[in-house]
Every structure is written in structure tokens, then in C-alpha cells.
Specification:
Layout: H1 5-26, E1 30-35, H2 37-40, E2 49-55, H3 61-76, E3 87-89, E4 97-99, E5 104-110
Parallel strand pairs: 2-5
Antiparallel strand pairs: 1-2, 3-4
Helix pairs in contact: 1-3
Length: about 110
């Protein structure tokens, strides 16, 4: 089962929007990276897109500030025809994940 051209374009457009918002909000201080099944090409049409945003911050309060900052930037972005509503999960043990779309998982990781 292969995705159609329109599905591929829609996914790439979503990734481009998120990368553009990260660049505009953080300059070079944050690096968004696509990973998981989408990055390997082994995804199904119903699969989500996993994106991690790498920052130089240590886990804790500064990274939460970045998470809220990115969430606000996405919500106020003109990149989407309908402003997405973010659901921030700030107490996760492995990652911090706002979900703006059923096809997207966006995580903040620290290095």
C-alpha cells in the first residue's frame, strides 16, 4: 500500500510548515528532525509523522518555555488555514509532545 502523490505532498507541506515555524521562532537555536516510520518510508497512509525539535537546553523549565513558545507560534501562524489547537503534554517521562494534527507527533528533546 503506497501513499498517493496528494498524500505525499500534504505530508511534506505539513513538515515544511513546522520547520518554517521553528526557523522563524528559534533561528538556528532549534533543529527539527523527522524520524520514525515516515523518515524511513515504511509508513502507512494512516501513520503519523514524528518530529523531534532538538535544542541545546537541559530538561526542565527552559525547555518547557521553548515548548510553550513553539506551541504559541504554531497556533498564531498564518501557515494553516484553520489555526491548530495545541494539546501540550508537559508531564511525559520520555518526551514533551504537543499534538497539532492527528498525523503529527511533535516532541522536544534535549542534547
Amino acid at each position: 500500500m503506497r501513499p498517493k502523490k496528494a498524500e505525499l505532498k500534504a505530508r511534506q507541506d505539513l513538515i515544511d510548515k513546522i520547520f518554517g515555524i521553528c526557523d522563524a521562532e528559534f533561528d538556528a537555536a532549534a533543529e527539527p528532525i523527522v524520524f520514525g516510520s515516515y523518515s524511513t518510508g515504511l509508513y502507512l497512509p494512516t501513520s503519523d509523522i514524528d518530529i523531534v525539535v532538538m535544542t541545546g537546553e537541559r530538561a526542565g523549565s527552559p525547555s518547557l518555555n521553548s515548548l510553550f513558545r513553539l506551541s504559541n507560534a504554531i497556533e498564531r501562524s498564518k501557515a494553516f488555514s484553520v489555526p491548530p489547537k495545541m494539546q501540550l503534554i508537559t508531564g511525559a517521562r520520555v518526551s514533551l509532545s504537543p499534538h497539532l494534527d492527528p498525523d503529527l507527533d511533535l516532541d522536544f528533546q534535549h542534547h
